[in-house]
Amino acid sequence: MRRIRHRHGTLTVQHVPTPAPGPGELLVRTEAIGVTLPVVRKLAPHGGAADGPVDEVVDEGDDGAGPEPLGGEVAGVVEAVGPDVAEATGFAPGDRVTGLCFGDAYSDAALLHTAMASAVPDHATAHDAVALVRGGLVALGALEAAHPRPGETALVTAAASGAGHLALQLARLRGGAGHIVAAVGDPAAKGDFLRALGADAVVGYGDTDWGPPADYALDAVGGALLGPLVRGLTDGGRLVAYSSGGGTLAAHELLAGAKSVTGFQIGRVARERPALYAAWREELWRLHAAGELRPAVAAAFPLAEAAHAHALIRARGNLGKVVLEP
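^ that's the sequence the OP posted. Answer follows.
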């Protein structure tokens, strides 16, 4: 099988034997692989595939070690299960599953731990699964952390991203938002897409007027945007930060208006509150089955063109989830 790894930011296609699933693992023949911003950012400091040309994927054969794996969401069909998996979990060959793979997600076949796996319902495609489940869980969890109340004004940053475009929809579906502001880097290019998903206004990060102060903001950008976001909140407003982009805030910006900032991490919910994690996942599928929550796939690239997929996310040109297809 093929897998893609990276060494100092340079992506490498390797041809290796298909692995056998161990205890608690499923071997999944991947049909769709979700590309995540944290993975793209992970490669960026090296200045390789994340910052250089997009044709850096080369075939080095199977060297058995060295290059590091790339994780991500996967969806596909179970080919084999590890010892005792069928008895303990009910998963069996032929099942359609999705989940977050921490090992080699960029591959023809991925090892997925059963704790991270869930069934893909009949009404969903593999693309739907990688676009909805993990990004939707992040979006729904961030919204829950904001404690939304019906009729409030919501501000969503990175609103056209894989998680952001779902957070925008959930702010109204789940939070009952009365007014939703979508913030992006390029409002002209993304405005039609976001308004079709329910945004009442689309603004740029550098705009001087974001409209009425927001009751809460869901932020996937971080960095220098944190200050303007807090200043854009109404008194008592809440900022939920779920970005890997870092950033700092001055305490007086919170104290003056009794504003608050909450950091959200979906991994902690998965580890410490698995029942809630599962309930959120089922809610996402229900909303999708009803046609209310619409996951969007911005582009699908062949596996060997992973660098092109990274380049699209790096340029912030995607409208929804970016997917690889083996």
